[in-house]
Design brief:
This protein has 268 residues and is an alpha/beta fold. The chain contains 8 helices and 12 strands. Strands 3-2-1-4-5-6-10 form a 7-stranded parallel sheet, with helices on both faces. A 3-stranded mixed sheet has the order 7-9-11. Strand 1 (4-9), helix 1 (14-21) and strand 2 (27-33) form a beta-alpha-beta unit. It starts with a strand and ends with a helix. The structure holds NADP nicotinamide-adenine-dinucleotide phosphate.
C-alpha cells in the first residue's frame, strides 16, 4: 500500500525535529528546511518560505496530502506584514492540490488580560511576534478551507541537541551556582515538546480542522525554574521570584489557554 506523503517544513527545528522523531510509520514524511542539507538523502528537500520557486519545487517532489508548517520564517518571524505575504503565498500554492495545512500559532495572539483563553475568544496581540502569528492565522482562514491551526504556549523539553532556549538559560545559571530572576506574576501555558509532537499525530489521525489550543500546564516562569531545579537536583533557592512590573517591556500577564476542546476531541 502506498504511504501518504507529508511535507514537514521546519524539520531541523526544535518542534519539527521532534514531530519527525514521533512520526508513525504509516506516513512518508519529507523533511524540509532552509539551510544546507544533504539533498542526496532520500526524502530531504531544501525549502525557503520566502522563495516561491523553492516551495513549488518541494510540493512537486513530495506531492503531500498534508503540510506540517512547524517553521519560522527567518529573519521575518516578528514582522506581521512579511509573514502575511509569505503565508498567503504558501496557502495559495497549497490550494491547487487541496493539501491540508497544519500551522503552529501561539498564545501571543491574546493580550493576556483574562487568561484561560478559548479558541474563539477575541484576539488582541501585544507584541510584533503575536501580530505576525495572528496575520498568518488570518491568511490561512481566508485562503484555505482545509487547515488546522494549533495554538500553543511555551514549548519546553529537549530535542536531540539541547533543551529549549528558556530552560537552557535557567539550567546554565544553576549549573554555575548562579542566581537567576524569574517572573512570578505572569502565567503561561506550557507543554513538553514530545507530548505536543505526539498530540499532533493524533490530531492528524482524527482529521481535525479549524483552531485548537494544545497545552499541558499553567505556570509562571518562576514555577518553571523551580521545576527544573528540582528535576535536576540543583539548589532551588537560586531561582529568585520577581515581579514583571520590574521589566521595562510591556508583557501580557496571563495568556494561558483553555484546552476543553482538546479534551473533548480525545474523548470522542
Ligand atoms: N518554541 C515555542 O515555544 C513555540 C511556541 C508557540 C509556537 N511556536 C511556533 O512553532 C513553530 C516552530 O517553532 P520552533 O521553536 O521549533 O522553531 P525553531 O527551533 O527556531 O526552528 C525553526 C525552523 O524553521 C526553519 N526556517 C527558518 N526560516 C525559514 C525559511 N525562511 N524557510 C524555510 N524554513 C525556515 C529552520 O530551518 P533551518 O534550520 O534550515 O534554518 C528550522 O527548521 C514556529 O512557527 C513557532 O512560532 C513555537
Amino acid at each position: 500500500m502506498n504511504k501518504q506523503n507529508i511535507l514537514l517544513i521546519g524539520s531541523s527545528g526544535f518542534l519539527g525535529s521532534k514531530i519527525f522523531e514521533c512520526s508513525p510509520k504509516k506516513f512518508c514524511v519529507w523533511k524540509a528546511h532552509r539551510n544546507t542539507m544533504d539533498n542526496t538523502k532520500i526524502h530531504h528537500i531544501k525549502i525557503d518560505l520566502t522563495d516561491t520557486i523553492s516551495i513549488k519545487k518541494a510540493l512537486k517532489i513530495s506531492k503531500p496530502k498534508i503540510v506540517i508548517y512547524a517553521s519560522r520564517i527567518y529573519p521575518h518571524d516578528s514582522n506581521p506584514k512579511k509573514i502575511k505575504i509569505y503565508t498567503k503565498k504558501l496557502v495559495q500554492l497549497l490550494n491547487a492540490p487541496k493539501t491540508k495545512l497544519i500551522y503552529f500559532s501561539s498564545d501571543a495572539v491574546f493580550d493576556g488580560e483574562k487568561g484561560n483563553y478559548k479558541e474563539n475568544d477575541k484576539t488582541n496581540p501585544k507584541t510584533d511576534y503575536g501580530k505576525a502569528k495572528l496575520s498568518a492565522e488570518q491568511m490561512i482562514k481566508q485562503f484555505s478551507d482545509n487547515f488546522l491551526i494549533i495554538r500553543t504556549g511555551y514549548i519546553l523539553g529537549r530535542d536531540k541537541k539541547n533543551f529549549d532556549k528558556r530552560s537552557l538559560e535557567v539550567l546554565n545559571c544553576l549549573k554555575k551556582n548562579q542566581k537567576i530572576e524569574r517572573f512570578d506574576d505572569i502565567k503561561r501555558s506550557t507543554i513538553k515538546v514530545e507530548k505536543l509532537a505526539k498530540i499532533v499525530w493524533k490530531l492528524i489521525d482524527q482529521n481535525l480542522k479549524g483552531i485548537i489550543h494544545v497545552a499541558e500546564k499553567k505556570q509562571s516562569p518562576f514555577e518553571m525554574g523551580l521545576y527544573l531545579a528540582k528535576k535536576f537536583n540543583f539548589d532551588s533557592s537560586l531561582i529568585i521570584p520577581v515581579s514583571y512590573k520590574k521589566s521595562k517591556i510591556e508583557l501580557a500577564v496571563d495568556t494561558t489557554l483553555n484546552i476543553d476542546k482538546l479534551s473533548y476531541t480525545f474523548k470522542k
